[in-house]
Design a protein that fits this description.
Rossmann fold, 370 residues, globular, 6-stranded parallel β-sheet, 2 domains, alpha/beta, 14 helices
Length: 370
């Protein structure tokens, strides 16, 4: 019997938002099957090809012209336009109002900051009452567009982020530290990480991201290292996968290659280090797995806080060139992994492997029971 309904909102501007929505949906279905749950990307449904054009433009600008992105990010942070322009997006606002009514949504969970002004406008329209939850997907340096809205609750990945939002003017009663909604598999205990045996190898996981032009050079530098086993995920980039296979054959060094895979939690738990960009979901899943990071790219604005969290906590470092990345890996595992042991311990206080379950429990508790 259905008892309550949750509408989850996402948008395809950064994988972290989609990952949060997808993981929360799975957690609700797993732990609260009595609650109806649906995920919508209102931007995509409202604006179709134009929205996808903007998504491609977003990927292009963060990788090719990050300084331009920083300018726009700062504009969103400071300008009242970002939270007062919902009327310009009337198609999306009307569709959102329709979906809340159609699904009889008791709780609306937003995993993307662009919905704040839309939901405020829907509420002012005196439609179906609902509880509004914002799941913040980044850490520390939070753009004010996340919290300049009437959200009833802000769920954040860690205590430093809670303090950041509180300093922005949000009352502590509206902020809850739940962790990021990582995949529910992380909620199951995993064996503690161990150094490899003398004849074994350190497991190095390189997750190629949208700025993948330098991936072959990074892999070549890593293959030159002794005593590591290299795992690479390259998504749906078949041309890159073929290039890396050729590189493996040329060097005579094996690479465990994965395309798009649903096994990232397992790979993260196997790995002694993750090499990737400082995306919100990536950082939080690495922390949930207690896997130290070497960060290869930091998108100005939203990812700077994620990188700061990793570096200041001692759970990793930033290295942006193939040579620097290889050196960071070598240093991590020198002296039988002395630095690795320190960084592994540093991940503990920030690890929230049950974040998805906690958020699902909270959202379910707010549903209007019949």
């Amino acid at each position: 019997m259905v008892s309550g309904s949750v509408l989850i909102l996402t948008a395809g501007f950064g994988e972290g938002h989609n990952a949060a929505a997808r993981n929360l949906e799975k957690a609700l279905r797993e732990f609260h099957p009595e609650v109806a749950v649906v995920v919508n990307d209102i931007f995509d449904e409202s604006y179709g090809w134009f929205n996808r054009l903007l998504q491609n433009g977003y990927k292009w600008i963060i990788n090719r012209h990050p300084s331009l992105w920083r300018t726009f990010y700062n504009f969103l942070d400071r300008s009242p336009w970002a939270t007062s322009s919902a009327g310009l997006f009337w198609i999306a606002v009307n569709l959102l109002a329709d979906r809340i009514t159609r699904y009889n949504a008791d709780v609306v969970v937003s995993c993307f900051p662009g919905y704040g002004a839309f939901l405020d406008k829907v509420r002012r329209g005196n439609g179906r009452p609902f509880t509004y939850i914002t799941v913040v997907t980044d850490s520390l340096t939070i753009n004010s567009i996340w919290w300049r809205c009437s959200s009833d609750y802000f769920l954040v990945p860690n205590e430093p982020t809670a303090k950041s939002i509180e300093q922005g003017g949000v009352s502590r009663e509206r902020i809850r530290v739940t962790g990021f909604p990582v995949p529910i598999v992380f909620a199951s205990p995993a064996p503690a990480s161990e150094n490899p045996s003398p004849e074994g190898r350190w497991q190095v996981l390189y997750m190629v991201n949208s700025g993948y032009d330098s991936a072959p050079d990074i892999v070549r530098a890593l293959l030159a290292l002794d005593d590591i086993a290299l795992i690479v995920t390259c998504g749906r980039r078949e041309a890159l996968r073929e290039k890396l296979q050729q590189l493996s054959a040329q060097t005579g060094k094996p690479i465990e290659l994965h395309g798009w895979t649903s096994e990232m939690p397992s790979l993260l738990r196997r790995a002694h280090v993750l090499i990737s960009k400082a995306g919100g979901a990536t950082v939080q899943e690495a922390l949930a797995a207690r896997t130290p990071m070497i960060i290869t790219q930091v998108v100005p604005g939203q990812e700077e806080g994620n990188a700061q969290l990793i570096v200041e906590s001692g759970a990793g470092e930033i290295a942006t060139t193939p040579e620097a990345i290889a050196l960071a890996v070598r240093n991590l595992f020198n002296e039988n992994g002395a630095l690795y042991s320190q960084r592994y311990q540093a991940t503990g206080p920030l690890s929230h492997p049950t974040g998805g379950k906690e958020i699902a429990n909270f959202a379910s508790s707010l549903c209007l029971r019949e």
